[in-house]
Design brief:
Length: 179
């Protein structure tokens, strides 16, 4: 069902190419504004869906897909530009691929999968977002350079911990139901 929250989510997905183009062509302030705008629309569509009882199955899939597409595009773009280390991008994307493969295996083996982000996963996403925002701010505020180095390491540790946590959860689910 295409309602207002789902429409906002689709617009967020459609803004990703504009974000990447701004990022790659050096329009870092525009890229920052698009990225922050995407974050605001993410909160807005969730708020509207909850408050006005407009949650849909489509939205439950589209929203995390939109988030992952934006984060992946940002990490790849920032790595290409040398603003963040490529190895961090590889870790972030590898974690997401492992999670997707785990879900696929569970679904293909007739296991019921509920998408409930854990505290560590939410913390990971928060640090990934803050790392990207800090990286986008760097051309405008030299003071964030030291903070960015710190955020890169915290994001790395949380991303790895979250990935291992999801592997543990997936293995437990698989083994509990006779995989």
């Amino acid at each position: 069902m295409l309602n207002l929250p789902n429409t906002i989510t689709i617009l967020r997905i459609l803004s990703i190419p504009a974000f990447v183009i701004c990022l790659l062509y050096g329009y870092s302030l525009s890229a920052l504004l698009l990225f922050v705008g995407a974050g605001v629309t993410d909160a807005l569509d969730g708020f509207i869906a909850r408050v006005f009882n407009q949650k849909t199955i489509l939205g439950s899939y589209l929203d995390p897909i939109a988030d992952k597409l934006l984060l992946t595009a940002a990490f790849i773009g920032l790595a290409i530009l040398g603003i963040i280390p490529s190895w961090l991008t590889v870790i972030v994307i590898t974690r997401d691929i492992i999670i997707l493969m785990g879900i696929l295996i569970l679904v293909l083996t007739s296991h019921r999968v509920e998408m409930n982000p854990t505290f560590i996963s939410k913390s990971t996403t928060t640090f990934q977002l803050v790392t990207i925002i800090c990286a986008l701010l760097m051309p405008h505020m030299a003071i964030v350079r030291g903070l960015l180095s710190f955020l890169i390491w915290v994001t790395t540790l949380l991303t790895c911990a979250s990935g291992f946590h999801y592997i543990y959860i997936g293995s437990k689910l698989f083994n509990e139901k006779g995989g």
